[in-house]
Amino acid sequence: MAPRVSVVIPAFNREGYLGEAIESVLAQGYPETEIIVVDDGSTDGTAAVASSYPDVACLRLRHRGQAAARNAGVAAARGELVAFLDSDDVWAPSKLAAQLAVLEAQPGVSLVFGLVDEFVSPELPPAAAASVRAPASPRAGFVSGALLARRAALAEVGRFDEGLRVGEFVDWLARAQERGLRSQVVPQVVLHRRLHDGNLGRADRRSRLDYVRVVKAHLERRRAGGR
To answer: Which sign does the torsion angle of CA 59, 99, 2, 158 carry?
Structure first.
């Protein structure tokens, strides 16, 4: 029997992009897919967009941030495999097929990533678009939207740190690497990552201090392990 894939989509005020994200998951054509949109206290029509898809579950939370939304989605997920997609990004059409093949062929691999193509969101006015630069070519992307993971790996590493406004996935991945979980990168684009002036890290520069906290904590754990 084919494994079920649970796709967790955290969303906060993303009514303009969420439909495209959901459609990119449906376009995978994988029948054993569970889509869970976690509405993180949106004040726009995000929940209405999610609810317009009959096969999409929508969890509605008070606004607590990305990490809390991810944790709630994982707790509700029923699949043996779990994937994430930010609500303003889109998956490449063959993402799941390529990554499922790796997990089926290599039981010792827990996490599968792929290449990420970043693009400037087309609705941006020229002045805003000029301030956003996308890399010229795809590159290996160790970001949440590029991941397909075994459910057991999520349980082993533990929850996302809800004390972080940004960088919660960087922190989680560092902990996964510290535990020795094996990962692999498929050599094809699996995620199209949208760049716009509303990206969380760009919109709230103070949140970048969280990245410093993540790196510092990772280095401290490495030093402690070395001792």
So the answer is: negative
CA distance 190 to 206: 30
Distance of CA 106 to the CA centre of its chain: 22
Report the candidate in 67, 33, 69 with the shortest Cα–Cα distance to residue 53: 33
* Average pLDDT over all residues of the chain: 89
Specify whether the CB–CB gap between 83 and 147 falls below 8 A. Answer: yes
Q: Under 8 Å CB-to-CB from 107, ≥6 apart: which residues?
A: none
CA distance 147 to 114: 7
Nearest to 7 by CA among 73, 95, 55: 73
DSSP for residue 123: T
Looking at beta carbons, which pairs linking 152-158 to residues 24 or more positions away fall under 8 Å? Answer: 152/110, 153/110, 153/111, 153/181, 154/74, 154/82, 156/181, 157/181
The pLDDT assigned to 66 comes to 96
Q: Both tokens of residue 50?
A: 């999610």
Asked whether the beta carbons of 197 and 128 are under 8 A apart, the reply is yes
Task: Please identify which residue in the block is written with the tokens 């969380």.
Answer: 200
CATH of the structural domain 5-226, one choice from 3.90.550.10, 3.90.650.10, 3.40.50.720, 3.60.21.10: 3.90.550.10
Percent of the chain clearing pLDDT 70 (strictly above) = 85
Q: Which of 143, 121, 134 is nearest to 198 (CA)?
A: 121
